Amino acid sequence: MSHIIHRNPRRVPPVAAHATGITITDRDGRTYLDASGGAAVSSLGHAHPDVLAAMHAQIDRNAYAHTAFFTCDAAEQLAARLAADAPGDLDQVYLVSGGSEAMETALKLARQYWLEAGQPQRTTFIARRQSYHGNTLGALAVGGNAWRRQPFAPLLIEVPRISPCYEYRGRADGQSTDDYTAALLQELEDAILAAGADKVIGFVAETVVGATAGAVPPTPGYFRGVRRLCDQYGLLLILDEVMCGMGRSGTLYAFEQEGVLPDLVVLGKGLGAGYQPIGAVLARAPIVQRLRDGSGAFLHGHTYMGHPVAAAAALAVQKVIQRDCLLGAVTVRGAALRRMLREAFGNHPHVGDIRGRGLLIGLELVADRDSKAPFDPARRLHAVIKDEAMARGLMIYPMGGTIDGRHGDHILLAPPFIATEAELAEITSRLADTLHATLNPATF
Ligand code: PLP
């Protein structure tokens, strides 16, 4: 009997006993290929010797010192590195313990920025349907999935939501991608004007939408248009790169491929690559300067912020990514995996779309490819697929999604950057077996 409140109260999951490379072994000796990097976390795979060595060295030196009294070399060096590697004046760093904490931090930093600017009436964030920004109340309030929010309503902040940039489902037949993008930007401008531009703090979005929609990249020019509107109406642009950041898209930050500079960037997952819980907010220098010139301090803080061992692990992760040229590997292996998936499932009657950036790849499942009709959500296909995959020693990250009242199941693949082509081929083959078993007309 387990005393842990597990995600599924009816079933205790297998006990992870060992992990190395892209494989996790459970207590009973069964092995699982980590094709999802957990939840797009494990970018270096498991038991990377450089990261383990950095953590051990840090534990030996100093495992913890509270930030009310001390800073530490590991945190300073990590922040300096993140600042040096980020474009423009995105050079202020706030280190926390995970993605939701980082999102809360970004929301409060943005709010305080406007307070210090003498604009306390700016209390509204605009966000998108079909988005996930974390499970704490503030992050939940800006997140898109109604089913996550509703049980906890009323939330702390009311957030107007606009359509996501989701070409597969959102673009009408005969509509060009440019026209679709222009319509989305018009919707954002309408939302800003409806809320009152001088009441809006900023716009929050995932650069590449992760788990809620299955690796949906933006259309060309979408974020340039968003940045233009934010500049025009004085909004902060807050990009959530908890899942798509830290190299997973093939560039360190996914927004680099969009040609925009956000005001705040929210990081987690791949920052520590699972070796330690760590998240961060990157902020443009003038934002933090305004707080320094104003009340002097950011009114925030967490017990484990800037944790030495977490910072040492994240610093080691970033060094390995650079030393081993893994950003290039992500681009090459991501293209290889997409090619394999297209070969395997390009004509599959129930795979409607294969998409993504780098090694963040989504497959959207449909009951019918022509109409794009989703499967009946009551079947909980994503959950069935996850179980089937685990039975075949494959970790994938399937989700049921909702958009504008329609439902769609998708599978997210986010293997470690170190996965070999042979491992990617094995992932594809096990996925094919999984889908064959799950979607076989004789059994499904
Ligand atoms: N933002 C995005 C885009 C995420 O994918 C997640 C987690 O899945 C979060 C925020 C929240 O991160 P955490 O689970 O570390 O709190």
TrEMBL record:
Cofactor(s) recorded for this entry are:
pyridoxal 5'-phosphate
- Do the record's keywords include Acyltransferase? no
* Record key words, sorted: Aminotransferase, Pyridoxal phosphate, Transferase
What CDD domains does the record point to?
A: OAT_like (cd00610)
Query: Which InterPro entries does the protein's record reference?
Result: Aminotrans_3 (IPR005814), Aminotrans_3_PPA_site (IPR049704), PyrdxlP-dep_Trfase (IPR015424), PyrdxlP-dep_Trfase_major (IPR015421), PyrdxlP-dep_Trfase_small (IPR015422)
Q: Which Gene Ontology terms cover its molecular function?
A: transaminase activity
* Gene3D superfamilies named in the record: Aspartate Aminotransferase, domain 1, Type I PLP-dependent aspartate aminotransferase-like (Major domain)
The family assignment reads: Belongs to the class-III pyridoxal-phosphate-dependent aminotransferase family.
Record's protein name: Aspartate aminotransferase family protein
